[in-house]
Amino acid sequence: MTPLLVVLVSVGGGLGAVVRFLTDARLSRNQPRVPIGTFVINLSGSLLLGFLVGWLGSRDGMSATWLAILGTGFCGGYTTFSTASVEVVRLWVTEGQVGGWAYALATLIGSVLAAAAGLSLGGLLG
Fold it and tell me: How many domains is the chain partitioned into structurally?
């Protein structure tokens, strides 16, 4: 791992965090009770990461570098497990156990399915 790669992964992570912030602000302003922004972010981030792994994982050379920058950096900064976890607990408290469990299961199952779809699509293009 080179110092340049560390810088590029950091820049990717910063960009991902900014895109997450803007996306969440845009999506959540109409739905303050339901954390739709985090839900959409985690599903789209899982789809993107799956795609990148499927597409870049089958290549040689620079693909590992791009996977680190885009996958670890951007997708790592964009998606957020910790926020989703807090929102599950918040929904559990404010909406009851059913709301919390529904959000948790929808996030988990949806993210896994999105990652699988991205991986398949990326594999087809790779």
Answer: 1
Q: pLDDT tens across 4-14, in order?
A: 999 999 999 99
In 3D, which of 114, 99, 95 has the Cα closest to residue 51?
114
Whether this model's pTM surpasses 0.85: yes
79 is in an annotated binding site: yes
Distance CA 41, CA 59 (A): 27
- List helix spans (H) across the chain: 3-28, 36-56, 63-66, 76-78, 81-95, 97-125
Domain that holds residue 50: 3-125
What is the Cα–Cα distance from 122 to 71, expressed in whole angstroms? 13
Find the radius of gyration of the CA atoms of the chain.
Answer: 16
Are the CB atoms for 73 and 9 separated by under 8 Å? yes
Burial class of 105 by CB neighbour count within 10 A (0 to 12, 13 to 18, 19+): exposed
